[in-house]
Amino acid sequence: MAAATVSSVDISDLTEWRRTVASLLLPLDIQTDDENFHARIDAITVNGIRLFTVSATRHWLERTARLASSGADPFFSISLQLEGSSTISQHGHRDLLLPGDFTVYDSTVPYERRFEADSTSLVVMFPQQLINLPPKALAGIAGMRISGAEGLGAIVSAFLAGVARNLTALEGRLGLSMAASMVDLVTAAFSEKMGIVAPNRSRPRLEQMMAIRESIMARLPDPDLTPDAIAAEHFISTRQLHILFREQGTTVSTWIRERRLEMVRRELVDPLQETESIRTLAERWGFPDATHFSRIFKEAYGVTPRRYRQDALGTAG
C-alpha cells in the first residue's frame, strides 16, 4: 500500500484557488474583495479520509444548492478554527467560530462560510457512513458549533489542533489509528452536545473497513479490481466483504464506481489535465466505454463531463 504524503500549494489567483479547492475538496463558489488575496493548502489523504490545513486572506464561500445536489458521494467535513474567525450557516444553524471551536458540515446540503480576515482552519473530509450516529441525529449536527473551551469539546479540539500541526505524522503506519480516533472523538463530542448515546462500534471493524477502502483507492485504475480480489488481499471471504459494505449502506461495486467517478471529476477541473481528452481520463480510471461513462457521470453530477469541465475551467466548445 502506498504511503500517504503531504502536498502543499500556495496560490494568489482567485480563479486558480477555486479550481484547486474544487479538485482537492469540493466545488464551491468562492468570492473575495481582497485585491491581495493569498491562500495556502496542505493536504494528505489517509484511508479515504482527506485532511487539509487551509490559510487564506479575507474571503467567503458557498456550497450552492446546485453544487450540493451534483455530487455522488456524501461527505461530512469537520472544520476546526485554528486562527482568526469565521461564520458558518447550514441546516438552520448560524454560528461564529473562534479559535478552538469546530463544526461539521454536510456536502449534500447548501452552506455558507465567511472569513472576514486572515484565517487558518483544519478541514477533515470523510464519508458520512463513518459517523456512527442515528440518521435523525446525523441530520441535526450539520452546521452545529462545538466550543473548544470546555468539556469534551476542549479535548477533541486539542487533539484536532495537534493533528493540524503535525500532518506528516499521518504518513506513517499509525495514520490509520489516528484517522479512526478523529472520527470517534468527533462523534462523541456531537453525541454529548445532542444528549444522545452513540451506538457501540468495534474499533477493529472500523479500522478494517478503512484499510479496505485505502487499498481500493490504491488500485482504483486496475481493471482487475473485483470483490474477490479485494477480499483475498484482506484475508476475508467475499461474503464478509459484502457484509462490511452493506453495513455502510452501499455495495462494493457502487463504492468503487463512485470513487472512480470522483477521480475523473477532479481531473476534469484540474488545469494541468486540460489537454487530456475526456475519453483518456475516463479510461485511466476504469471506464473504457465512453458512452456508458458519460451517462453515469451525468446521473451523478447532473451534467455531461464536457459541460462540467467547461463550467469549471471557463472554456467553451
TrEMBL record:
Keywords: DNA-binding, Transcription, Transcription regulation. PROSITE patterns: HTH_ARAC_FAMILY_1, HTH_ARAC_FAMILY_2. It comes from Arthrobacter mobilis. It comes from the Bacteria. The lineage of its organism: Bacteria, Bacillati, Actinomycetota, Actinomycetes, Micrococcales. GO terms for molecular function: DNA-binding transcription factor activity; sequence-specific DNA binding. This is Helix-turn-helix domain-containing protein. InterPro entries: AraC-bd_2, AraC_XylS_family_regulators, Homeodomain-like_sf, HTH_AraC, HTH_AraC-typ_CS, Tscrpt_reg_AraC-type_HTH. Gene3D superfamilies: Homeodomain-like (1.10.10.60). Residues 210-311 form the HTH araC/xylS-type domain. SUPFAM superfamilies: Homeodomain-like.
